[in-house]
Amino acid sequence: MTQTITVIHGDGIGPEIMDATLHVLDAMKLDLAYEYADAGMVAMEKTGELLPAATMDSIRKNRIALKSPLTTPVGGGFSSINVELRKRFDLYANVRPAKSFPNTLTRFPADVDVITVRENTEGAYSAEGQETAADGQSAISVTRTTRKGSERIVRYAFDLARAAGRKKVTVVHKANILKSTSGLFLKTAREVAALYPDIECEEMIVDNACMQLVMRPEQFDVLVTTNLFGDIISDLCAGLIGGLGLIPGANIGADAAIFEAVHGTAPDIAGQGKANPCALLLGAAQMLDHLGKPEDATRLRKAIVATLEAKDSLTGDLGGTGTTMGFAKAIASRV
């Protein structure tokens, strides 16, 4: 049966990496249909809205979206289009794998394989209750942590670990200082961990976790943490394997899921064919796993690895001279 997905081309380099990704997906003959929708500056220019109702309706109907990076303009409105999408569809789980790839510019050997599971809808990152005093001398923002939010993200992490054959989940927190908010997260995590005796659970304070990731990343398997810590840690993990050009992101809720490249729009190279499409391609692989097509997801990942090993048409950030679409065609030839 044909699966229809919402496709958002995005801003900056977004259209280039999306076209490259769709080229590879089409070569795989996956019986996917695309419903195109706009968001970001492209949507603003067309409709006067950053998130048009038609785009929201498309995601709601198809329940699956593949999204390129978006620009949120400075000023009024949303603090972030991505944050707004997560809130509207209750996409509570942000999943970012960081795995070593061959022939990438990294200081670490090929043994990094970490999945960061980040709570995606609450906490400090949600920027709830932001307010600046009239005199500009102080500002406040509310950090809200709930038992429900903590429980479901930790359950998600342990379920993911079990399904993927992972052996350990590390709960990252700051409960030694943030005793109420991070304390509630840690207490809830301990209760959930007790339900998974087959999975090792360790606890680590966030600053130590960052240091340990830089020193010995091979000791980690699955990390689960709160929204702001997860945002920072997942980018740190990207640095371990060569940068954000190799990191996908899944935003998953009960009724919808959005898969994306987590890097920015890179307007300085937009339209030049220089962008690396790997992050969005790996996001597409996450999408295929979510759609119950694990064999196809594996096929796509293996084709990416084989192309990197062959140094075939690699883009400049990977040390090559290839173009975005040229790289994609090299991957498509191997799927």
Automatic annotation (TrEMBL):
GO terms for biological process: isocitrate metabolic process; tricarboxylic acid cycle. InterPro entries: IsoCit/isopropylmalate_DH_CS, IsoPropMal-DH-like_dom. GO terms for molecular function: isocitrate dehydrogenase (NAD+) activity; magnesium ion binding; NAD binding. Its EC number is 1.1.1.41. It comes from the Bacteria. Keywords: Oxidoreductase. Residues 4-331 form the Isopropylmalate dehydrogenase-like domain. Belongs to the isocitrate and isopropylmalate dehydrogenases family. NCBIfam families: PRK08997.1. This is Isocitrate dehydrogenase.
